[in-house]
Write a structure and sequence with these properties.
The complex is a heterodimer of chains A (298) and B (476). By secondary structure, chain A is mainly alpha-helical. Chain A has helices spanning 7-31, 42-97, 103-124, 180-183, 191-203, 211-261, 265-289; strands at residues 127-128, 131-132, 144-147, 154-157, 165-167, 173-175. In chain A, 66% of the residues lie in helices and 6% in strands. With 476 residues, chain B is an alpha+beta fold. In chain B, 59% of the residues lie in helices and 12% in strands. Chain B is rod-shaped and about 140 Å long. Classes of the chains: A mainly alpha (298), B alpha+beta (476).
Chain lengths: 298, 476
């Protein structure tokens, strides 16, 4: 049987193929990734695009959540201060209403109450990074201004009733704010106007007729403010939960991504050594067969 | 009655034949590594016998010449296979270049600062919008959105322009391939003439070797069909039947520009570009990549770019910016681009707003810390806006399609290479010069020549003996 006398070309082609295998394996080893071109594993690449997208979303939410967390805490501590201020206002008013104090004492209580009102007002105007947290969507403008030219003084709300939400990567919505008019000047439980009324009640040195009713109104306003604070507290704990969840999801996705793309070093090393053996064998075959023809023996 | 001089004639003829056969062996050995050389074998013919008084006497041997060991069937099969292999190989090269543009999709980098392609750009854009939700009035967050949009647009531009420049380079390569093919066509026509005049009825040996070699080279360049005509002539056509060579005449392929790319025409002025694309050879592969693969990738990117830009624009227009004005378009798209024909969107997309305050994060009529519209824009990430799916999923599908196409063509190419190797081996075993065979034949011929010479010496002695009437002397 005749064979192709030009077998050398075939051997050299095999040698080239082995070299190219070695090159691919070396690249996989040096990058640590088994997918370096789309064609290495198209489906894995497609999956990687989706995974990276989700990891990116989780990662960016984790960062956003941290700064949002701070904003909610600022709101929460502002409301905490308001609650304690109102509590002391109530005890001052109760003291004033028991009829044992003289005019001078009453006037001083009125002044103390005005101080408390100013404190509450400044809490209502709390900002976080330049944004007024209690003015609904009007974060750029101060929610409350106080007009002291009238008696009782009048606090005016300049924000709106918008509630903002932050959306988590899973579509969950977390409340970011409580508008000021739901906390400080809600109809029926208007903290600021009640405080203003009390200031006016004792300003003259004799408690006015509405003083007792105003004190009672302040008590109910207190429990209302506490309720609103719960909404913020809820958001903080939900945000923490969401943040923990996205972080653990991110960890899981990253490990999925690693599994998807990572090169199996042991396997590659084995393949590389096989390719190397093959190459050595081929080179020896070429070297041995290369020069031998019958002409040498003539 | 046979005479001694007849025996002399036979011995002389044998010596002549052996010498010619040695020439053939020498020629084979000399051309052992010549590309396209076909092994030649001496054609021995027994001379007609002579019948004298009812007895047949053999009259020796003549060598009628060298016969090329050629199988036209195998050679034609090899030409076809060469065309197919070169087509996929050229296409694979182009596809490999294409896929390297999108290799960012293989990286696991989730760091938004690391540029890893359109997929991560989309992620960054939508992520920057969800960050904007928590601080809608913050300039830095707005700046982030704008810069993510700019990165996305410039990566779309980059990919589109690189695809386009690949297309141009394929176009130029195609033109140079056609130039080479035209030269070969003239060569083949000339060889046709020579073969027809020197060897109309038999294999033309060296000339035929050259013609086959030219056909092999031509097959590497483009898809052809060949038909053998009378007098050993050869007609070459494209796979679609456009005439390229007939007898001694070559019909050159001409080229001209049609809608921005080079188109090719036959001698009658018909556009044979489609014919050449499906035909095979390097040209077939180049044209397939130029006219199918690249436009397909460009089309997919155009669709994606158009969908993202138009959705973002619409949503931004629905909200209010930091100054309370209605949002304007964030991206600009080429005029005339529509969802149905988004051609040029990837190349032409750009970000038109430079002032971060003009991003409409707030819902219409809401204050600056409202984030309704930012949320709505971020939610575009999860909406089916292109090909019935989300932008990221669409990009993922795009890389899967491209990667699979490369894998497919690469597999095809490997199979064709194997088939080509097999054919080359078959042809080699028939037509290749095996030095061992030649050495053996040399040895045989040498002995045969020696035997004929010995015969001559013996006959000489017999003749001398006859001339001296049986007295043993030395004839000088």
């Amino acid at each position: 049987m005749r064979v192709n006398p030009d077998y050398m070309t075939n051997l050299v082609a095999s040698l080239d193929a082995t070299s190219s295998t070695e090159e691919t394996l070396t690249e996989e080893l040096s990058t640590g990734s088994r997918v370096n071109q789309l064609s290495d594993d198209p489906v894995a690449v497609g999956e990687n695009v989706m995974l990276s997208n989700q990891i990116g979303a989780d990662d960016s939410f984790s960062q956003t959540a941290s700064s949002t967390q701070s904003m909610l805490q600022v709101s929460d501590s502002a409301l905490g201060t308001v609650v304690s201020q109102i509590t002391s206002a109530i005890s001052l008013a109760t003291e004033a209403n028991n009829g044992t104090l003289n005019a001078g004492d009453l006037e001083s209580i009125s002044n103390q109450l005005a101080g408390i009102r100013d404190e509450v007002l400044s809490m209502a105007n709390t900002t976080y990074l330049g944004r007024y947290v209690f003015s609904g969507s009007q974060g750029g403008s101060q929610p409350y201004t106080l007009d002291t030219t009238t008696s009782p003084a009048v606090a005016t709300y300049q924000g709106d009733s918008d509630v903002e939400y932050l959306q988590t990567p899973n579509g969950q919505k977390i409340q970011l704010n409580v508008p000021g008019n739901q906390i400080f000047s809600a109809a029926g439980t208007n903290v600021l106007s009640t405080l203003n009324a009390l200031v006016a009640d004792y300003a003259t040195g004799t408690p006015s007729a509405t003083a007792i009713a105003d004190t009672e109104a302040l008590s109910s306003a207190l429990s209302y403010v506490s309720q609103q604070r719960v909404a913020i507290d809820n958001s903080i704990s939900r945000l923490t939960a969401a943040q923990n969840y996205t972080q653990s999801e991110e960890t899981q996705l990253k490990s999925a991504q690693t599994t998807l793309l990572q090169a199996d070093v042991g396997q590659i090393a084995t393949q590389l050594s096989t390719a190397e053996t093959q190459q050595t064998a081929l080179s020896q075959v070429i070297a041995t067969l290369g020069k031998q023809t019958l002409f040498n023996d003539l | 009655m046979a005479t001694i001089s007849t025996a002399f004639d036979i011995a002389t003829g044998a010596l002549d034949a052996d010498q010619s056969a040695l020439d053939i062996v020498a020629n084979n050995t000399a051309n052992a590594n010549t590309p396209g050389y076909t092994l030649e074998m001496p054609a021995w013919v027994q001379n007609d016998s002579v019948s004298l008084d009812g007895i047949n006497f053999g009259m020796g041997v003549t060598l009628t010449g060298a016969e090329s060991q050629r199988s036209l069937v195998l050679e034609q099969a090899m030409q076809q296979q060469t065309q197919a292999e070169n087509a996929t190989s050229a296409r694979l090269n182009a596809l490999n270049q294409m896929q390297s543009l999108f290799s960012g999709a293989t990286s696991a980098g989730t760091d938004s600062s690391a540029s890893s392609g359109i997929g991560s750009d989309l992620t960054s854009l939508f992520d920057s919008l969800s960050s904007l939700e928590s601080s809608p009035a913050d300039d830095a967050a707005r700046e982030d959105v704008l810069s993510a949009a700019n990165t996305l647009a410039s990566d779309f531009n980059g990919a589109a322009s690189q695809l386009q420049s690949q297309r141009v380079s394929l176009d130029e390569q195609g033109a140079s391939v056609v130039g080479q093919a035209n030269t070969l066509l003239s060569d083949i026509a000339q060889l046709n003439l020579q073969i027809e005049s020197t060897s109309p009825n038999a294999d033309a040996g060296t000339l035929e070797d050259q013609r086959q070699q030219d056909l092999t080279s031509l097959s590497q360049l483009m898809g052809i069909r060949t038909v053998t005509t009378e007098n050993n002539g050869l007609t070459v056509t494209t796979t679609g039947g456009a005439l390229l060579v007939s007898e001694g005449q070559a019909f050159q392929i001409t080229s001209g520009e049609t809608s921005g790319v080079t188109h090719y025409f036959d001698s009658l002025g018909n556009d044979i570009t489609g014919d050449l694309t499906s035909g095979g050879g390097e040209l077939g592969g180049l044209l397939t990549a130029r006219d199918q693969d690249i436009p397909q990738a460009e089309g997919a990117l155009d669709q994606l770019a158009y969908a993202v830009a138009s959705q973002m624009n619409t949503q931004n227009a629905a909200g209010a910016d930091l100054n309370g004005n209605a949002g304007a378009a964030i991206f600009s798209l080429p005029t005339g681009a529509t969802a149905a024909s988004p051609t040029g969107s990837a190349a032409g997309i750009s970000v038109v707003i430079t002032d971060p305050s003009r991003i409409a994060a707030a819902g219409a009529g809401q204050g600056t810390s409202d984030n309704t519209n930012a949320t709505a824009m971020a939610n575009i990430a999860n909406q089916a806006i292109v090909n019935g799916t989300t932008a990221t999923q669409d990009y993922s599908d795009f890389v899967i399609t491209l990667g699979s196409m490369v894998t497919e063509v690469s597999g095809e190419n490997t199979a064709q290479q194997a088939a080509l190797t097999q054919l080359t081996n078959q042809i080699g075993s028939l037509s290749g010069v095996n030095l061992n065979d030649e050495a053996a034949q040399l040895e045989t011929l040498e002995q045969s020549y020696q035997a004929a010479s010995k015969l001559f010496t013996a006959l000489d002695a017999v003749m001398t003996s006859a001339l001296n009437l049986g007295v043993e002397t030395t004839y000088t």
